[in-house]
UniProtKB/TrEMBL annotation:
CDD domains: HDc. GO terms for biological process: phosphorelay signal transduction system. Pfam families: HD_5, Response_reg. Residues 5-121 form the Response regulatory domain. PROSITE patterns: HD_GYP, RESPONSE_REGULATORY. Gene3D superfamilies: 3.40.50.2300, Hypothetical protein af1432. The modification 4-aspartylphosphate is found at residue 54. Residues 141-383 form the HD-GYP domain. This is Putative two-component system response regulator. It comes from the Bacteria. InterPro entries: CheY-like_superfamily (IPR011006), Cyclic_di-GMP/3'3'-cGAMP_PDE (IPR052020), HD/PDEase_dom (IPR003607), HD_GYP_dom (IPR037522), Sig_transdc_resp-reg_receiver (IPR001789). The keyword Metal-binding does not apply. Keywords: Phosphoprotein.
Length: 393
């Protein structure tokens, strides 16, 4: 069975027939006499594995078609072999400079044609294999990252059992709020799909620093003293410092650097449908950097009265500003030893009143656009009947 497909492009029918006679026993063949038809065939499924392309054609020339194919993500990885009667070194250099893989000159010599086509197909098979390895490795790294984050987040739950579904709820609030805020021109460049995905998987680590808080404070059944509250506030620093150390260690790791170098070499030719999963940032520590910033800054306030660094306005990382709204909303609608769960409406009113004080004004406006979806998330991961009843009012 002929599994490899070749596209022959030449405005001269005789040349097409010659090449077909040379290659028909080994490959499935299609042909085009114009650049327009050739481009359509190159984009059609199944795509050709190699293109033999004449340079001198009326309309779209071979050089122009080569540029079109190399600039289109659907066809950029297909090797192109120019077929020409030209022997000028400048023409050869131009062809190679715009992405051609090789040249075959007329008149055709069957052994040379078959050999050069075979070479390019083998090289493509090798590149495709490397691309699959890159994608597989990238997915493996993503899975490891997500499992690591979930495991660390569950440590926080064990140390602070009162949180219950807090981690799941806040994680989903963060995604929802970030997606809504991404429609605002100010934040659109920062809240890309990839960045929102990183926010979603990093958010569960926002309270990881609580593992370092003494039990006498963490499990105290009534209000904390000023000194105890000052100690509790240190969870932001403990968590941020822990993740900062992990980030530095990862970036310095020779193994991580080798993985990054490998991905950089091969990711450019990843197939379109999997390109989004070849994310170099995920091995360069960006998710740790994001989680670190969330830890440090999710208790900062827009007016500068928060902690631990008294940052204000846009000096607070955007991820921390997003997490702040998610965290406070969830604290308000959750039952605590010192308070009953607030109704959804009361929680929304409190956050709206803190616009420009505790919270980023733009993010508050985004929150008000999706507050009903916040309620639905809270109901999906609700911890108790009492909280459920409050959310329904």
């Amino acid at each position: 069975m002929k599994t490899e497909k070749l596209l022959i492009v030449d405005d001269t029918v005789e040349h097409i027939h010659l090449l077909m006679n040379i290659l028909k026993c080994q490959y499935a063949l299609v042909a085009a006499k114009t650049g327009e038809h050739a481009f359509m065939l190159a984009c059609s499924d199944p795509q050709p594995d190699c293109i033999l392309l004449d340079i001198q054609m009326p309309g779209i020339s071979g050089f122009e078609l080569c540029k079109m194919l190399k600039h289109d993500i659907r066809t950029a990885a297909i090797p192109i072999i120019f077929i020409t009667s030209l022997a000028d070194e400048d023409d050869e250099a131009q062809g190679l400079s715009i992405g051609a893989a090789d040249y075959i000159t007329k008149p055709f010599r069957p052994a040379i044609v078959r050999s050069r086509v075979w070479n390019q197909l083998k090289l493509k098979q090798h590149r495709d294999h490397l691309d699959r390895l890159v994608i597989e490795r990238s997915r493996e790294l993503t899975l490891i990252k997500e499992i690591t984050i979930e495991t660390l987040a569950h440590l926080t739950e064990y140390r602070d059992p009162e949180t219950g579904g807090h981690i799941r709820r806040t994680q989903n609030y963060v995604r929802l709020l970030a997606e809504e805020a991404s429609s605002h021109s100010r934040y659109a460049p920062y809240l890309t799909t990839e960045q929102i995905d990183l926010l979603f998987i990093s958010a569960p680590l926002h309270d990881i620093g609580k593992v370092a808080i003494p039990d006498t404070i963490l499990f105290k059944p009534d209000a904390l003293s000023k000194e105890q509250f000052d100690t509790m506030k240190r969870h932001t620093v403990y968590g941020g410092d822990c993740l900062a150390r992990a980030e530095r260690q990862l970036i310095r790791s020779p193994q991580a650097n080798r993985v990054v170098d490998s991905l950089k070499i091969h990711a450019a030719s990843a197939v379109k449908e999997d390109r989004s999963s070849v994310d170099l940032q995920q091995v360069e520590g960006s998710f740790l950097s994001l989680a670190k910033d969330i830890c440090y800054s999710h208790h900062e306030k827009w007016n500068g009265s928060g902690y631990p660094m008294n940052l204000s306005a846009e000096d607070i990382p955007l991820c921390g500003r997003i997490m702040a709204i998610a965290d406070v909303y969830d604290a308000l609608i959750s039952k605590r030893v010192y308070k009953p769960p607030f109704t959804h409406g009361k929680a929304v009113s409190i956050i709206a009143a803190e616009k420009g004080k505790h919270f980023d004004p733009v993010l508050v406006e985004a929150f008000l656009e999706v507050e009903e979806q916040f309620r639905l998330i809270a109901l999906e991961f609700v911890d108790s009947d009492e909280e459920q009843q409050a959310l329904l009012h």
